[in-house]
Amino acid sequence: MEKSLARYIWSNTRLEQIWILTIVAASMIPYFLSFDLPKQIVNGPIQGKGFEHPGDTQTFMHIAFDLPLIGHVEVFEGLHLTRFWMLIALSLVFLALVVLNGLFKLYINTYKGRLGERMLRRIRFELIDRVLRFPPAHFKRVKPAEIATMIKDEVEPMGGFTGDAFVQPALLGGQALTALIFIIMQNFWLGMIAAAIVAVQAIVIPRMRKRLLELGRQRQLTARELSGRVGEIVEGIGTIHANDTSNLERADIAARLGLIFSIRYDLYQWKFMVKFINNFLAQVTPFLFYSIGGFLALQGRLDIGQLVAVINAYKDLPGPLKELIDWDQSRQDVQVKYNQVVEQFSVDGMIDPKTQLVSLAPAGRITHPLVATNLTVVDDSGARVLDHVSVEINPGETLAIVGESGAGGEYLAEALGRLIWPDTGRITIDGNDLLELPESLTGRRIAYASSDTFFFHGTLRSNLLYGLKHAPLTTVAYDEKAANKLKWQMIEARRAGNPEMDLNSDWVDYAAAGATGPNDIYAAIRPVLDIVAMSQDILDMALRSTVDTEAHEDLASRIVELRQALRLGLKEESLEGLVVPFEFDAYNPQATVGENLLFGTLKRPQMTNRKLAAHPYFQQLFTETGLNTDLYDMGLEIAENAVELFTDLPPDHPFFQQLTFMTPEDIPTYEALLQKLNGKGFSAASSDERTAIIRLSFSYIEPRHRFGLLTQTLMEKIVGTRAKFYEHIPADLAEGIERYDPERFTASATLMDNVLFGRIAHQQANAPERIHSIMYDVFERLGMQDSVLSIGLDFDVGSGGKRLTNVQRQKLNLGRSLLKQADYLICNRPLPALDHRVQDQILRAILSEFDNRADKPALIWVLTNPSFAELFDRVLVFNHGSLVESGTTTDLLEKNGMFKELLS
After folding, report:
1. Mean pLDDT in residue range 368-379
2. pTM for the whole thing?
3. What is the CA radius of gyration of the chain?
4. Among 641, 728, 743, 748, which residue's CB has the most CB atoms within a 10 Å radius?
5. pLDDT score at 344
6. Which residues are CB-contacts of 112 (< 8 A; sequence separation ≥ 6)?
7. Measured distance CA(224)–CA(232) in Å, rounded
């Protein structure tokens, strides 16, 4: 990177800087005229110079030039004005100059602001670009939070300084110099006084501010270290809780904050001392002007108009001068920060930009072997983890790598996947070094999967297809307004040195996955999910999800067909009792009291149980039907039973998972409420207390909670109240409730609830699993697997994929690699979280899939279980970083060597 910030800015904004400097130079003309005009107004119309006799006039706006060779040129002979009208005319000119100077400032500030933002965008992109080209080993030495802080916060001042780098000294220096020259032109000695004060400020203040720069640098470093430490705390929160070190971390953070406080306090003290001295020097000058200038005026050596003009000109001198000094400090401060950024982002051995160029063309197949020659890898401690290993892997070959953890096989896999770079030796394809080949080839034709998974925040779909997003392949069709906006964005991207690529385009390389487009991509995804045994997980996610009816209109429109098919499937299996359907005239014992009362679902967060119980219409209906006292008594008994059973249990006890109507935090609240209401009736409770008690009954399910609170009479009463509830329901309440309808889709309910249109009878063994199996068959029989799969793939995986289990993350990671249909698949112990039976099932499924493909890819698998090696064509055995054995399983067993020891 360019080490001088000024050179970096000039090289990237040269033409824009020249233009704005030209505008600055032009703005000095009206700026100078605005100083001279007050003198003309005071000496002329106000004091009467040139208007000694009544009726005298002066020429206004006379424009003429004496040019060489041409002679006198008269442009405008001017207007002859009386004293009053001359005053008005000169005042209007002064107003015009004020407006003109303001417009110049507006244009200059706006232009340099846009210039700064453009440069900030450029430098941030350049730093991210360099992060993407860091050698893999460098990431072990940096903290992600520190890198993010530098790119986000520490380069922010550089963007603001870009517009000021050349414009600000030219503008402020020009204004200060113009004011100073004008003062000297009025009176030499007053000008010398102003020049002397300016010299002191220009020399002394910057020297004093060197201490400020050093303190600012220390503040920046300590703040960055704090950010990195906070990032470590977030990432290692599990370790902190497991080892009871939270107070150690508090002490560490307190010490860091104390250091930052002392630096900032010292900074403030020094900063305001400098400001005090600067302000004192600025205020001394007017004192000298008033005293010395006034003395000269009394002697007649300086007229009043000149004194007013000098004072007026000096009024505009400290401002630019102070800002110029501030600019110099900012320049030095930003240069220090820029030096730190350059230091952090100038890394040896960065990836050549040519290897990461965008390629829209499909990558050709790799038909040559992967050859590792004399490969040596040294870890950060200096130990050789891979020692002079040479191996050739042929296309279509299946290769198992076995050995103890850390024996060297995993490092060979990482080197083949370009995740680590060898210290000596190299890996080649057809004689070309693997590290010099473009990523558009290696990233598409070589796939890598390990147990160390990472997923970006987004949906399952976006993460599963991530390995296919190489370039903007399909352009989105925009309307005219959007197209013009995109065109402007692309122009700005080019000016800022950013790539002109539309993120909204379709980046997925469908052909690489064996599909033709988004319509048939699920046909390629389904087999992959089946292979890695994740189809059932996706189905479960889909069934627990609410459905966007606009995006999945086909499924919503066929909901009645799905319900009928499920009923038929249950009947064929003689399992009709597994589901209790919703019927408007009957109570569903497997549903909550609230669901039975509403015969529908609440549209959350618009409506909740608390809001419903507190609604006046709801309370009125309860009073009229007598349900208020019935449900109050039920809620009271629920509270008593819950408090009695759960009050002594820890908040994380598994019993609380069954307690749907109350959280562990609610137990003390209801315990206090029961003590207050003990022995008192319904009328003794306040409105809020009744609401809190009645709310508990809404989540009660008799077969699940088994408190024996639901009588046949009460169930019939609830069903009768249900019909009355909808007779005169107010609009605001109706908007928050979606009623069950056997002929339509319930948007606020999950997919499973919509298909069931009822509730599972939980008292039957394995009822949910059996229902899921029948549903899966129904979706397949009706050809709706893609729609259901799409809903499941809409699941948000969370930050880093943390909403998925470790098993699901490893399955998804392997599935993403399989979806690329690469020529070489490298699996570096990809499934350690799964038991050996499931690992064996997935491995056999992958091998079977590869055998059925005409372009059979090579499979390199670092095994956690050496017994799986018999499934591979060849086996490599590693020990202490060396390749000690190689051959088929039969050959290796006959040798009675290390491979046989690993199996025993």
Report:
1. 94
2. 0.76
3. 40
4. 748
5. 81
6. 20, 162, 163, 164, 167, 168
7. 13
Residue pLDDT, tens place only, 844-859: 999 999 998 888 999 9
Query: CA 341 to CA 212: how far, in whole Å?
Result: 19
pLDDT at 311 over 90: no
pLDDT at position 445: 93
pLDDT tens string 769-796: 888 888 888 998 888 888 899 999 999 9
Pull the structure tokens for residue 553. Answer: 């209109």
Residue-wise pLDDT tens digits, 72-94: 777 777 777 777 888 888 888 88
Asked if 662 contacts 670 with a C-beta cutoff of 8 angstroms, the reply is: yes
3-state secondary structure of 428: strand
pLDDT tens by residue, 555-565: 888 899 999 99
Contact residues for 58 (Cβ-Cβ < 8 A; gap 6+): 44, 50, 51, 80, 81, 86
CB 808 within 8 A of CB 538: no
40-62 pLDDT, tens digit per residue, is 777 777 777 777 777 777 777 77
Q: In whole angstroms, what is the distance from residue 782 CA to residue 558 CA?
A: 10
C-alpha distances (whole Å) from 812 to each of 382, 451, 831 are 34, 11, 10
- Chain mean position to CA 338: 24
Length of the chain in terms of residues written: 904
CB 471 within 8 A of CB 807: no
Nearest residue to 772 via CA among 551, 528, 569, 526: 569
DSSP sequence for 89-134: HHHHHHHHHHHHHHHHHHHHHHHHHHHHHHHHHHHHHHHHHHHHTS
Q: What percent of the chain has pLDDT over 90?
A: 23
Tell which phi-psi region holds residue 347, choosing left (phi > 0), alpha (psi between -120 and 50) or beta.
Answer: beta
Rounded mean pLDDT of the chain? Answer: 83
Are 333 and 216 spatial neighbours (Cβ–Cβ below 8 Å)?
Answer: yes
For 118, 166, 339, 528, the CA distances from 336, given in Å and listed in that order, are: 21, 18, 5, 52
Measuring CA to CA, which residue among 452, 454, 459, 453 is closest to residue 797?
Answer: 459
CA neighbor of 822 nearest in space, from 418, 371, 365, 398: 365
- CB neighbours of 365 closer than 8 A, spacing ≥ 6? 445, 823, 855
Q: Is the peptide bond before 605 cis (omega within 30 degrees of 0)?
A: yes
Question: HSE-up of 267 (CA within 13 Å, CB side)?
Answer: 15
Residue with token string 């629920």 = 638
